[in-house]
């Protein structure tokens, strides 16, 4: 107790010096990292949640290091010029495509196209590798093991003359009419060779999934018309027109949908014009051509060039690449699977004519508020490339929840202390503790990575700061009620000697619990534990310096008879209020009188919690490699967690070329982690 007397006397005699000194120190700690360090980057909310230091992560690191070392620019490269790209050649190719679009391209090197076997399961049926025709295996132009359909770049037969690049650069931004080609380009119609779509579907385009809520499925006339109506809702409005690729200056490209491909095959201008007979004929065509698709004979190249492989495919199967694009992009893999002739289409893909990017935010807001269901057809999932951007937006928007919780705690503190001044100074102390923690985190520990999870430390700081303030104010009130004749110095000595120990124990145990998580293999958890533990200790320092000095200032102004702002007076700090003593007695009485009831209720609640956690539904490890940011019912999460695996192009893109578990043995490469190290 004697050790705290000198410090208590300093606070009692010089409260303004303490407040000014602490404020200057905390403000300095905030200004230095803010001005000398880059602000935290939350553009990738999944960053930091990868495990590091485990046996598996080290093996993955060794594999990544091997791939990096064997790149053309790596130290183990056998062809250092392999990744050299001539920008002049790229410019030639682009100019050739613009001036000779629609002309037939000579593709003599078909072996540059990787056509390989797709091994996957659909409706418990597995495609047999031995069903590949012998001619395909003997041609030597494909890989017999791995599988993916990759469209080859156009091989140019003749090249146009190279223009003067300086002349081209000097005319940038000028009126194109001066040079003759501007007006032609303005009136140019950007359509593919089929005359309907602008280009071929691609994984980089935005897309939505349409599902049937009934038993009839999607491949019938009524369902396809319903999908056309939903497509019309998705492809209209100012937000869509700002994003879409254009056929001309005023018309957007059509979306790649099942209804539009049926319209293309039957020479209809819109999917609203198709008939039931058109749908039945298209279904029969898909059933007829599906074996060629799964035997890897039907490829995108069959439309433009009838090579040895494509000659075995009937011409109607390769017309406009419709069958290939429908089976590969637009229908789920369980539809018309290998070795089965009849199947129900439950899910269909609608590919929108604009890329996946953060620019689709306004478009998403528009369709999110619209009705995306017609009869039994509903939009169940979507992929707009907007997941991380939307998470960042929600993260900023949801800060009001943290503020609302903090406001509730502070209102309780104001009601308890009857001092707006003490409540305000407690808020400042909490903010200062977070600033000091950020200073120690970035400049003392020299940690550059600041995950968004560290923001949750603000919630912890509010709770711990309020608890410490309650402890000190309660101790001050009770001692003043018992020793009303004591001076402020004696009151501070007694209150600080009793409250400081309680606050120190609670802060130390809380900080120790946070620091224990530093041994975690997850980087984000380790960073959070360091930041939250440091904030807890900084909060303790503020509560034994800033808060006592604030109480002394409040006591001084409260006791003055001519205090100018009476609504700031601290009545309960000057005298212990009777209403809170009565409430304390009520709580003690209720707890002691009904002790058996509380034991029974809380015991039953604990047993129920054990069942929920360990039995049903219980905690379970994630069974997907996609990082979930939103609720499972969100359309973005539905796409990644459930629907993306149902479509062939997504399945190949996610799983890779070989869908079986690969075994890779690496020698001579050390698992050196080149990421940001937490401790140097």
List the helices and strands and how they pair.
Blueprint: H1 2-13, H2 15-36, H3 55-69, H4 87-99, E1 121-122, E2 125-126, H5 134-138, H6 165-170, H7 182-186, E3 205-212, H8 221-234, H9 238-243, H10 258-265, H11 276-294, H12 315-318, H13 322-330, E4 347-355, H14 361-368, E5 373-374, E6 377-383, H15 387-397, H16 399-417, H17 420-444, H18 457-482, H19 488-516, H20 523-543, H21 546-558, H22 571-574, H23 578-593, H24 595-614, H25 635-643, H26 648-655
Helix pairs in contact: 1-19, 2-17, 2-21, 16-17, 16-18, 17-18, 17-20, 17-21, 18-19, 18-20, 19-20
Helix content: 40-55%
Distance from N terminus to C terminus (CA atoms, Å) equals 41 Å
Number of domains as seen in the coordinates: 3
Rg over C-alpha atoms, rounded to the nearest angstrom: 35 Å
Ranges where pLDDT stays below 50 over 5 or more residues in a row are: 83-188, 561-578
How are the strands of the largest sheet arranged? Answer: 4-3-6-5
Total number of helical segments? 26
Strand percentage, roughly?
A: under 5%
**Overall pLDDT confidence:** 79
Oligomer status = single chain
SS class: mainly alpha
Shape summary: elongated
Main β-sheet description? 4 strands, antiparallel
Q: How many beta-strand segments? A: 6
Short description:
With 680 residues, this protein is mostly helical.
Explain what this protein looks like in three dimensions.
The protein has 680 residues and is mainly alpha-helical. It folds into 3 domains: 2-39 and 398-576, Multidrug efflux transporter AcrB transmembrane domain (Multidrug efflux transporter AcrB transmembrane fold), CATH 1.20.1640.10; 189-386 and 621-666, no CATH class; 580-613. The protein is 51% helix and 4% strand. It is built from 26 helices and 6 strands. It has helices at residues 2-13, 15-36, 55-69, 87-99, 134-138, 165-170, 182-186, 221-234, 238-243, 258-265, 276-294, 315-318, 322-330, 361-368, 387-397, 399-417, 420-444, 457-482, 488-516, 523-543, 546-558, 571-574, 578-593, 595-614, 635-643, 648-655; strands at residues 121-122, 125-126, 205-212, 347-355, 373-374, 377-383. It has a 4-stranded antiparallel sheet with strand order 4-3-6-5. Strands 1-2 form a two-stranded antiparallel ribbon. Helix 17 crosses helix 18. The radius of gyration is 35 Å and the shape is elongated. It starts with a helix and ends in a 25-residue tail after the last helix. Mean pLDDT is 79; it is low at 83-188 and 561-578.
């Amino acid at each position: 107790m004697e050790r705290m007397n000198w410090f208590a006397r300093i606070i009692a005699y010089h409260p303004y010096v303490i407040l000014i000194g602490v404020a200057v120190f905390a403000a300095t700690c905030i200004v230095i990292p803010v001005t000398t360090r880059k602000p935290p980057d939350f553009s990738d909310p999944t960053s930091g949640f990868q495990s590091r230091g485990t046996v598996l992560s080290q093996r993955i690191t060794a594999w990544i290091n091997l791939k990096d070392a064997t790149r053309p620019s790596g130290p183990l490269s056998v062809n250092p010029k392999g990744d050299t790209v001539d920008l002049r050649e790229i410019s030639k190719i682009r100019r050739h495509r613009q001036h000779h679009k629609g002309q037939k391209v000579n593709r003599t090197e078909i072996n540059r196209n990787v056509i390989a076997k797709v091994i996957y399961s659909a409706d418990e049926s597995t495609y047999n590798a031995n069903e590949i025709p012998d001619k395909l295996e003997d041609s030597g132009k494909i890989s017999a093991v791995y599988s993916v359909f990759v469209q080859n770049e156009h091989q140019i037969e003749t090249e146009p003359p190279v223009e003067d690049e300086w002349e081209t650069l000097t005319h940038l931004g000028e009126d194109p009419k001066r040079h003759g080609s501007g007006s032609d380009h303005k009136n140019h119609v950007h359509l593919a060779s089929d005359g309907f779509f602008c280009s071929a579907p691609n994984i980089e385009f935005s897309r939505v999934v349409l599902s049937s809520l009934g038993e009839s499925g999607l491949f019938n006339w009524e369902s396809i018309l319903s999908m056309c109506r939903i497509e019309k809702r998705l492809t209209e409005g100012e937000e869509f027109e700002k994003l879409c690729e254009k056929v001309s200056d005023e018309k957007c490209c059509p979306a790649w949908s099942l209804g539009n491909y049926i319209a293309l095959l039957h020479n209809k201008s819109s999917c609203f014009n198709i008939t039931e007979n058109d749908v039945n004929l298209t279904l029969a065509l898909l059933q007829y051509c599906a074996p060629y698709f799964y035997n890897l004979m039907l490829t995108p190249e069959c439309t433009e060039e009838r090579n040895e492989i494509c000659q075995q495919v009937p011409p109607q199967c390769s017309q406009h690449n419709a069958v290939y694009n429908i089976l590969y992009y637009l229908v789920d893999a369980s539809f018309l699977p290998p070795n089965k002739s009849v199947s129900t289409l439950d899910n269909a893909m609608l590919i929108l004519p604009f890329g996946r990017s953060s620019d689709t935010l306004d478009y998403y807001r528009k369709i999110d508020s619209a009705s995306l269901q017609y009869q039994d057809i509903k939009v169940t999932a979507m992929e707009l490339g907007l997941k991380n951007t939307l998470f960042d937006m929600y993260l900023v928007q949801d800060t009001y929840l943290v503020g609302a919780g903090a406001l509730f705690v502070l209102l309780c503190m104001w009601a308890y202390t009857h001092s707006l001044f003490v409540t305000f100074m407690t808020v400042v102390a909490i903010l200062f503790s977070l600033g000091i923690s950020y200073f120690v985190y970035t400049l003392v520990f020299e940690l550059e990575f600041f995950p968004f999870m560290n923001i949750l430390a603000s919630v912890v700081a509010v709770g711990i700061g309020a608890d410490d303030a309650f402890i000190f104010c309660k101790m001050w009130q009770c001692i003043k009620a018992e020793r009303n004749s004591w001076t402020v110095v004696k009151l501070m000595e007694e209150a600080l000697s009793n409250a400081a120990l309680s606050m120190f124990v609670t802060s130390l145990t809380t900080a120790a619990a946070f620091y224990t998580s530093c041994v975690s293999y997850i980087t984000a958890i380790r960073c959070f534990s360091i930041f939250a533990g440091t904030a807890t200790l900084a909060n303790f320092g503020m509560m034994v310096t800033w808060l006592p000095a604030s109480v002394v200032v409040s006591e001084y102004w409260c006791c003055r008879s001519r205090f100018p702002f009476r609504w700031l007076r601290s009545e309960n700090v000057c005298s212990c209020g009777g209403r809170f003593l009565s409430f304390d007695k009520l709580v003690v009485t209720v707890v002691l009188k009904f002790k058996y009831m509380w034991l029974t209720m809380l015991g039953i609640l604990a047993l129920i919690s054990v069942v929920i956690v360990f039995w049903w539904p219980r905690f379970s490890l994630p069974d997907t490699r996609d990082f979930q940011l939103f609720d499972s019912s969100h359309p973005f999460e539905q796409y990644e967690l459930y629907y993306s695996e149902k479509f062939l192009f997504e399945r190949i893109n996610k799983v890779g070329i070989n869908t079986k578990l690969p075994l890779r043995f690496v020698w001579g490469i050390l698992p050196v982690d080149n990421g940001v190290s937490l401790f140097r």
